[in-house]
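Hello again,

I reread your note about wanting to compare the complex against the isolated chains. To keep things tidy I'm splitting this into two emails, and this first one only covers the full assembly. Below are the input lines as submitted, including protein chains and any nucleic acid or small-molecule components. They are followed by the predicted structure of everything together. The single-chain runs will come separately.
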Amino acid sequence: MKECFKHHPWQIIEEGFNPHYNKIAESVFSLGNGRMGQRANFEEAYSGETLQGSYVAGVYYPDKTRVGWWKNGYPEYFAKVLNAPSWIGIKFNIAGQSLDLAQCRVDEFKRILDMQTGLLSRSFKATLPDGKQVHVHAQRFCSMAKDEIGAIRYAITPVNFSDSVTITIDVDADVQNMDSNYDEKFWDEVSKSAVEGECIVTAQTKKTFFHVATGMRYRIVQGGDELKASVKTLLREKYAGNEVTVNFTAGKEIVIYKYAAVLSSENHPKEKIAEHCRQVLDDAMATGYDQLYADHVKVWEHKWNECDITIDGDVAAQQGIRFNIFQLSQTYTGEDERLNIGPKGFTGEKYGGSTYWDTEAYCLPFYLGTAEQKVARNLLVYRYKHLAKAIENGKKLGFTDGAALYPMVTINGEECHNEWEITFEEIHRNGAIAYAIYDYIRYTGDQEYLVEYGLEVLIGISRFWAQRVNWSDDKKKYVMLGVTGPNEYENNVNNNWYTNYIATWTLQYTREALDYVRGKNPSAFQLLLDRIQFSDKEAQVWKHITENMYFPQDSSRGIFLQQDGFLDKQLMKVTDLRPEDRPLNQKWSWDRILRSCFIKQADVLQGLYFFEDQFDIDTVKRNFDFYEPMTVHESSLSPCVHSILAAKLGYEEKAYEMYLRTARLDLDDYNNDTEDGCHITSMAGTWLSVIKGFAGMRLKNGELHFNPFIPRQWKSYSFRIEFRQRVLKIKVTGSRMEALLVSGEPLTIHFKGTSHTLNENQVIEQPL
Amino acid sequence: MKECFKHHPWQIIEEGFNPHYNKIAESVFSLGNGRMGQRANFEEAYSGETLQGSYVAGVYYPDKTRVGWWKNGYPEYFAKVLNAPSWIGIKFNIAGQSLDLAQCRVDEFKRILDMQTGLLSRSFKATLPDGKQVHVHAQRFCSMAKDEIGAIRYAITPVNFSDSVTITIDVDADVQNMDSNYDEKFWDEVSKSAVEGECIVTAQTKKTFFHVATGMRYRIVQGGDELKASVKTLLREKYAGNEVTVNFTAGKEIVIYKYAAVLSSENHPKEKIAEHCRQVLDDAMATGYDQLYADHVKVWEHKWNECDITIDGDVAAQQGIRFNIFQLSQTYTGEDERLNIGPKGFTGEKYGGSTYWDTEAYCLPFYLGTAEQKVARNLLVYRYKHLAKAIENGKKLGFTDGAALYPMVTINGEECHNEWEITFEEIHRNGAIAYAIYDYIRYTGDQEYLVEYGLEVLIGISRFWAQRVNWSDDKKKYVMLGVTGPNEYENNVNNNWYTNYIATWTLQYTREALDYVRGKNPSAFQLLLDRIQFSDKEAQVWKHITENMYFPQDSSRGIFLQQDGFLDKQLMKVTDLRPEDRPLNQKWSWDRILRSCFIKQADVLQGLYFFEDQFDIDTVKRNFDFYEPMTVHESSLSPCVHSILAAKLGYEEKAYEMYLRTARLDLDDYNNDTEDGCHITSMAGTWLSVIKGFAGMRLKNGELHFNPFIPRQWKSYSFRIEFRQRVLKIKVTGSRMEALLVSGEPLTIHFKGTSHTLNENQVIEQPL
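Full-complex prediction:
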């Protein structure tokens, strides 16, 4: 854990120039707008430690798989988030010296990310090797209002000199991924142009042939007037720039406004993309920086209005939760059903892919609770559109007749991951995709989704489960062999309770969905069944499996067993571990981790979280008490589930402890890996910890229930919830809870079992 | 299965030029002498498909590990067999055309490996693009008598032209490994020299800094006289040659004698290695080709005398067994205790490393039965010398107090392998190393070995087992979790019966060894105990483990279970598989293989083979009948064990079927991979199938027992056995068995339970 940044309710503040954690700061201060994103790299040249990162949503590269020992069934490539052409460059040559903070004395360095307005500011005083000083105030944002535009306001003042200075303002597609498997560059040039004041480079990805046009225009202003400059155009392979020579006068500020446009062939015809790029640039120039910014702020205002959580009395916690919400909102806006939520969002390239089971298991509830219904719906449709690929993936592994296995990691629906124990065995992801359909419908009431998309996905997944189990003559039950559960610190186990449970649940839910669609829309039902050659015999088999599935348990302890062999392990507690053994994944050899009892992330408990209605509180308690002390939470996805269950069980201190582990994970670099990017998907877990944990929000029979408590460290907290065309505001203080129906039809909610029906603008309150 | 080669009792014969299986032939026709080896690459230039391979025993390169996903504990490199400088090159330029069989019409091509004399011959008629024809007879051998010398006799006759021809005779260290992880070259130049008639290149391996001096001298003779030639010396980076221009006269044969010397810094001081190389070359020139060859043949004569097996009535079987014995004898002579038996010997670079558990489990009995005692002893001492590294390896994985885990694959004692389920979990290899000590002592009676080396190794291994098991509160037994047994088609299983058994056996045997050494040599005993800080408490723990180990079994079937979850699998037979599903490892995804019941190689049966005295015949039969039908034998190490057990159980057809799978594996390219090299270590299994299988040889209380049968396809078979300073010859025909004591003190042997005491030169016989 590090304390790199100041605590503040709305801002992330870095004070002083700290090259040794520059990469951490670059991640934390990243900007995005759902369409494009940018790490907090400097506009100037920088020869110090940095991870350059510009990203364009949906644009990826299939990097050839690298393994030590090939296993049959591995995918041929790993689809990677691409480091895209850079649009931020504003480089200075002052008397033969590059303005490069790694080569200067740097004073008064300050970097601020204002989360309320989505603005990154940076200021510093740099002393060049020859003693010349400049004072810089730079600001930038990725417009939330016009999501193909980025804008920079770069103000520079020569403190102690007057001289002619050369400024290079450019777009650069000659960029590389740090995690390229074979050190290749992934971009080829398509076209480029550079005229005075405008440069555009169109580049295409190798193999996937995405085109991205990156353009820029700029203005240089002094005292409100356009500054006179001599301009030289620069054109190199995959690069276009303007070299602008201007006169610096001591004490006189010069302001550079740089407008960038980033367009992808996902949204524009390739043959028109450069032309469209020019139009976007024209629009940006015409609108101007201040107006662009005002429009951008307005969108943020609306976002925060939708999804802010306020915490009174604990600035670190307030900053933490806002940071999580801010990053989630930057990463995925839900407007494009082709997109999804990458594990690092627009903050880094690690892990590649864009879609893990994180989306369904962690992110979906966040978007359900904070955005219009279509946002969550688009996340489901995304998987619907990948169904054919999931069936193909199943086929590749030997499954037949339309059995769908969704990939562990994907961008375009094809599997990317290449580690057999995960790729082929961590199949519970399939269950999470089915569960998300249930979760979405439960929350929204949008049963129609089943007819349109849901049932077909459920059938594909159920077909997979039915083939993946086998009858054990020995147990006289169905078993599921060779799986990896959510706890990746066990591999290739038999009868992972969670996987067996979610598989059985899927089979059952699919049968219910069949009945629903059959009744609701018989003709659509029949069309679907014919198309996918579904026969009712399949559902009969599913019924048999549901009724005869094996679930490992320990009846003496009254707990479910994570897998068949769990009780043969030496049962220890995390508190028995020496500090120098943590984190286990960096200190212990893999086999030692595997045969230890220590759990990376919620596994049985993940099931009890998903399906809590099906278990009494004592069962949850017994399992929590057994598994929690063995859980090391070395996955960012783990603490939130424990926090929610702890809250449910009244373990308030534990709930708060787990909350803290998730809320400030990246801000305080808990896992020593923020430099690679932020843990975007697990950020939704922070939100869940508050809403489902502290506030105890649950949905029962289509109505919202709250069973809140407040951590003793806090004075109050409040949040807003979107629910079935209503907006609800909840506030919890040390002594009472209150609800306001901000908008929408009258709504019945339940506070600790007491029902209240609210009308619009009505507030109700109740003692805690 | 392919039929590339003609059947012949002593020769491998390829007729006709078949570029599409040239790489297979290059493997099969490989030559070696325990010190150096050479694939059957052509002396001339060849632009067709080829895998160039020259090898020098003990010289390796640590290639940086390549993995998809790093796991803690992986080794940083994989020590690889190196493709060493080439000494065979004799290249012709005839009227501006290269003599390159890929560019010529080739007639009368014939390649013969004479196994009796270790000579590779090749003849062909080549028509160059311009119509010029040459007739070539080439021969070469790697001298078994002087193991740093290779010799070539290359006779070429211009058929239809006379012209001046340029011949390049060279040594070339600018060579590469095909399996380099990062496409690096592994050799750097140290020095080189080229004068008329002699070239020497000294190269060193990167990182490991082995020096290898490769030199050559030559004579060119026509009609018995030295041919006049003009010579130009060639020197390039890592290369030295002579460009010799001679006059070819139509119909007149020219013979080139090329003598090569290959010296390694393992045997020569680096600063003298080039000088020593020159001396070896001088010696070779002085001795001359014919005498070198005569000396070489004499050693082979002696070898065959020691270890030949004759089979009458089945030429394919005769050729097969001799090919196996020939390759084993070329690979390892046992004269250097630093060396071991690589999986591909000197026939290819695949799999790297030089030492797998194959050595102890398969090869040791071959060398015990066919060579002087010191040869097998050196194989054991090799592991003794790696004990410190094995302890270090254990430490790396979290074991303490001198616990030794021998590597899965090694050259210098360090682990090379990087696949967690094997590297960290296929730990039964440790048991095979302990078993080999027992096996060696049982066969030789050399109990003294325990005092000198054996006990210390046994203690290291036992310490590992004692830490690797854990007490299961649930089972009230010791269990061993997370292992991979010999059947690599199951991974990370619990309580692999074989591993549990050999671990428990090791603990027991080590305790017996402690008692023996304590009684035999108390002072050496105490010294050892002090040095390795052994306390008797450890042995007490071992006793407790031995007495309380858990062994999975199915009492209703009366069988041992391969692992805890085996009976949950869907039990099928290999005969249930569709032909298009075979081999499984090329057709099924890895997870499907893992959760199937199909077995790659003997696992429970491997234990019943090692420890047969501890199980009654019915137990062996029940287990064989259960597991054999599920075994796909997709490891070359599998069929021999099944063959031996089948023979024991009287399943004669099965024993013969399994024998055939091993004997002609490479000759007929059963597994479609001979082009990568031959399966050297499994060749010992072929020998075992005959000796322990068909002839039923066993050792009981220090005496040899035979319980032979003869496959109905054969008329007779015979073999020689070295046993405690005696040489015994056994012959089995359709009606009788006979034994001759070739040399040594009187010996009591048992034929089907009947005892015979033989004196030297005495023959006894008995009806079958």
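For quick reference: Residues 33-304 of chain A form a domain with the Beta-galactosidase; Chain A, domain 5 fold (CATH 2.70.98.40).

B.
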